[in-house]
Specification:
Blueprint (H helix, E strand, L loop, with lengths): L3 E2 L12 E3 L5 E3 L7 H12 L6 E3 L5 H4 L2 H8 L2 E4 L8 E2 L5 E4 L2 E7 L8 E4 L3 E5 L2 E2 L9 E2 L9 H13 L7 E4 L5 E2 L7 H13 L9
Parallel strand pairs: 3-4, 4-5, 5-6, 10-13
Antiparallel strand pairs: 1-2, 2-3, 7-8, 8-9, 9-10, 11-12, 13-14
Length: 213
Amino acid sequence: MEPIAVTADAEEFTCNAYLVAGDATTLVDAGTMPGVDDAIAGALDDAGADGLDRVVLTHQHYDHVEELDAVVDRFDPRVLAYADHPHRDVALEDGDDVLVGDEACEVVYTPGHADDHVSLVGNERLYSGDVVVHDDGAFSDGSFGRTDMAGQSRERLIESLRDLLDRLPDAVEAMFPGHGGVYRAADGPDTVREVIERATERAERREPKYPDE
């Protein structure tokens, strides 16, 4: 089933949180939007889903986990994450297979923006978190995660982007990033691979992503 962006109506800064109904109804990230649990409940009803089976965290920056307590309290899902967290039930490792809705996704460890960052790579969809997005305040057609804050590394992020490209099936047709818009190859001039390649080339220039970085 098509992922639903349950934080689409947020009035404050948040990540994109995606509800994907299916055999394993999954929320990818929890966001910071107050009342996101109500949005999830509405999306579950619309999808005809019995409940929320799991939450998969791409990483644990506050904008991705702030509302995790509320989600867990209301729906009691299993929580899958790379790094330790009080709510974590399953520790993710590079190369694991995780069912997101009805789609089997490979966990690809993609640090650089965050030490615990993972991306979820399916045959049709990529959930890229913050390692790569289509549009943000820096670029509108392929951008890389920021690396100007403490604990971040541009060099490690570049390695992650290259690894992601190596493990990306050519059939992937949509990218669901942590920020900005969803990119679908059917709606644009590029394949998902080409968007990531462009972001990688920009990161490899080692220039600041933002002028004041």
